[in-house]
Amino acid sequence: MIGRHEGPARLPLAFVILILAFGSSVNLGAQHRMPPIPADKMTDAQKKAAAEFTAIRKTDPTGPFAVMLRVPELMTLAFKWREHVQFRSVLNQRLTELGILIAARHWTQQYEWNAHYPLAIKAGLTPELITAIEQGRRPSRMAEDEEILYNLCTELQRTHGVSDATYAQALAKFGEEGIVEATSMQGYYMLLAMVMNTARTPLPAGATRPPLAAFP
Questions:
Q1: Domains of the chain (ranges plus CATH)?
Q2: Which of 48, 62, 81, 117 is in the most buried spot, having the most CB atoms within 10 Å?
Q3: Are 147 and 133 in contact (CB under 8 A)?
Q4: Closest CA to 127 of 136, 112, 117
């Protein structure tokens, strides 16, 4: 990804086309390694975990949860974490969706990005901000809380740590609880991204957003 203070890299047109073509194929044309488990092939533990998921979400396990159902306890734990992020985080929904998009883009996770793009718009993120993240650029216009969260999450993703200056800004704005929410959210969506990238989970049927391009 492009550095925090850098502009877009200048690449030959042919190379850019090659990158876009490759990126369009990621997780789309490749074999789906772990498709949803048919009900008649599930173990009792898998049936129980799937039924608990369906009772809450009113749908069968999909995306990362369909993959993680191979280990029912992990799927249940991951789903409970998802409910916390969705309903009980100290960060508001706009900041939550920003953090999710940062993780999804860092891992070029097609399913996550496709699912959360409309949720991010609904939560109040601007299309211009989202496009910048999609292209690997630092957004030029962010609200103060968005910029502080962006700095925290992108620095953690890129350097695997957080500088004193970035930490101090985040602490003043979000407190320790907010920092834990933001950083653990990066870890959670990295977990889901790694699971789906390994399983080559495809976009859902009817997905209309163009796939993410792979970074050089």
A1: 43-86 (no CATH), 91-199 (1.20.1290.10)
A2: 117
A3: no
A4: 117
Sequence-distant (6+) residues with CB within 8 A of 137 are 2, 7, 8
Q: How is residue 4 written in tokens?
A: 């925090």
CB-count exposure of residue 80 (10 Å: 0-12, 13-18, 19+): exposed
What's the confidence (pLDDT) of residue 206? 87
What was the pLDDT predicted at 3?
44
Q: In this predicted model, what pLDDT tens digit does every residue of 61-74 receive, in sequence order?
A: 999 999 999 999 99
Contact yes or no for 169/148 (Cβ under 8 A)? yes
pTM as predicted: 0.85
CA distance 175 to 199: 36
For 24-83, how does the pLDDT look when each residue is reduced to its tens digit (9 = 90+)? 444 445 689 999 999 999 999 999 999 999 999 999 999 999 999 999 999 999 999 999
- Nearest Cα neighbor of 157 from 214, 107, 95, 94 is 107
Give the number of residues written for the chain: 216
